[in-house]
């Protein structure tokens, strides 16, 4: 039995080579198994002059992105600051709005999709701007060594003309209407920084099983107890209000919730996390130290939240000490801050 992995269609022969599939002159007698990479929709948002309007590094820009809704299969999705995942040749399971860096600008992304959709609909609503009806077809009908991929996208009935990637679309909007939405001239400029802590995938540390009275942060000679007023769970769109996002609290707060961390190879949903913040990067926190307490464990954390040389928020965090033979976390980031995997 032979297998072909398709990562990029124009590199089909290369994909066949690295998959270990050697075909005879007549194509071989063994059946082929096709694995197709999932497709993701990429969205540029620009003004009439072609300048990108997506800016996730300011409060206003972040709130504007979070105001946008994506309707898919009777579900509503919003941007939550999640980094875009790397798509793999696996059955699709992830749907969400993420952000991707593209040269000097950013793209919103929505996906992922395997090739079995015909005239599927995604409705994008930008408050103060309007709605965009996106229809796409992504199919595969393999025959021999030809995957027979078909891709097409329309926006409000107009076909997308992008030979490099038809799934990358451009929405042109009025800059004044974009900028005026929810603006507050008295608001701090920069996107605040939050520290995120992930205990473990073990059921012992599931959000429901943890005694929140035994969760705390020690910082600047003060003990911060868990605050259950700000439970945070991805995908909960009930009574959604951008201004109530806990990253915009006006005082340091420890809270928690559940989410799916896109760094997980298993695509596991419902991971527990705890959050502490916000920190204003304009105050330039450099190698600050705090202690995160979880049940009988404690971890000394060093973190930085400041502006870089270009005035863009920079953040990082490292475990200095713990109680598991000095293991440290990988460098990962989540929403608006560093993501610390606790070695439990």
What is this structure, in a nutshell?
This protein has 344 residues and is mainly beta. The protein has helices spanning 12-18, 59-67, 175-180, and strands at 2-6, 32-36, 39-46, 69-72, 75-83, 96-102, 105-113, 116-126, 130-140, 149-155, 158-159, 168-172, 193-198, 215-219, 222-225, 232-233, 253-259, 271-279, 285-294, 297-307, 313-321, 332-334, 337-341.
List keywords for this structure.
344 residues, mainly beta, 10-stranded mixed beta sheet, 6-stranded mixed beta sheet, 3 helices, 23 strands, 45% strand, globular, disordered N terminus
Helix content: under 10%
In sequence order, what are the helices and strands, one letter per element?
EHEEHEEEEEEEEEHEEEEEEEEEEE
Q: What's the total count of β strands?
A: 23
Which class best fits the helix and strand makeup? mainly beta
User: Roughly how many Å is the radius of gyration?
Assistant: 23 Å
Percent range for β-strand residues: 35-45%
Overall body shape: globular
Straight-line N-to-C gap: 42 Å
**Order of the strands making up the biggest sheet:** 11-10-9-8-4-5-6-7-3-12
Number of helices: 3
As residue ranges, the low-confidence spans are 1-26, 235-240, 263-269, 324-329
Question: What characterizes the major β-sheet?
Answer: 10 strands, mixed
How is the topology of this model organized?
Elements: E1 2-6, H1 12-18, E2 32-36, E3 39-46, H2 59-67, E4 69-72, E5 75-83, E6 96-102, E7 105-113, E8 116-126, E9 130-140, E10 149-155, E11 158-159, E12 168-172, H3 175-180, E13 193-198, E14 215-219, E15 222-225, E16 232-233, E17 253-259, E18 271-279, E19 285-294, E20 297-307, E21 313-321, E22 332-334, E23 337-341
Parallel strand pairs: 1-2, 3-12, 5-6, 13-23, 16-17
Antiparallel strand pairs: 3-7, 4-5, 4-8, 6-7, 8-9, 9-10, 10-11, 13-18, 14-15, 14-19, 17-18, 19-20, 20-21, 22-23
């Amino acid at each position: 039995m032979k297998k072909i992995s398709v990562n990029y269609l124009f590199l089909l022969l290369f994909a066949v080579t690295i998959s270990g599939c050697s075909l005879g002159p007549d194509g071989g007698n063994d059946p082929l198994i096709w694995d197709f990479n999932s497709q993701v929709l990429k969205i540029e948002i620009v003004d009439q002059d072609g300048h990108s309007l997506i800016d996730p590094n300011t409060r206003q820009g972040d709130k504007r992105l979070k105001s946008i809704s994506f309707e898919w299969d009777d579900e509503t999705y919003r941007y939550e600051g999640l980094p875009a995942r790397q798509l793999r040749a696996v059955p699709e399971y992830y749907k969400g709005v993420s952000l991707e860096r593209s040269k000097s600008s950013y793209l919103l992304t929505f996906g992922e999709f395997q090739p079995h959709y015909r005239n599927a609909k995604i409705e994008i609503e930008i408050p103060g701007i309007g709605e965009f009806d996106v229809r796409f077809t992504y199919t595969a009908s393999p025959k021999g060594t030809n995957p027979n991929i078909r891709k097409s996208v329309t926006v409000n009935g107009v076909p997308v003309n992008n030979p490099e990637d038809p799934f990358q679309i451009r929405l042109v909007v009025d800059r004044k209407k974009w900028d005026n939405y929810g603006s507050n001239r008295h608001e701090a400029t920069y996107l605040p920084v939050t520290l995120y802590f992930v205990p473990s995938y073990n059921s012992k540390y599931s959000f429901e099983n943890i005694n929140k009275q035994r969760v705390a942060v020690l910082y600047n000679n003060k003990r911060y107890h868990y605050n259950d007023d700000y439970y945070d769970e991805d995908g909960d769109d009930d009574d959604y209000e951008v201004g109530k996002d806990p990253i915009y609290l006006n005082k340091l707060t420890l809270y928690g919730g559940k989410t799916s961390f896109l760094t997980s190879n298993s695509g596991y949903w419902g991971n527990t996390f705890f959050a502490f913040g916000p920190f204003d990067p304009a105050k330039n926190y450099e190698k600050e130290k705090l202690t995160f307490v979880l049940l009988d464990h404690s971890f000394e954390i060093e973190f930085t939240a400041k502006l870089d040389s270009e005035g863009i928020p920079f953040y990082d965090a490292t475990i200095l000490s713990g109680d598991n033979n000095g293991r440290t976390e990988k460098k990962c980031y989540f929403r608006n801050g560093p993501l610390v995997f606790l070695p439990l």
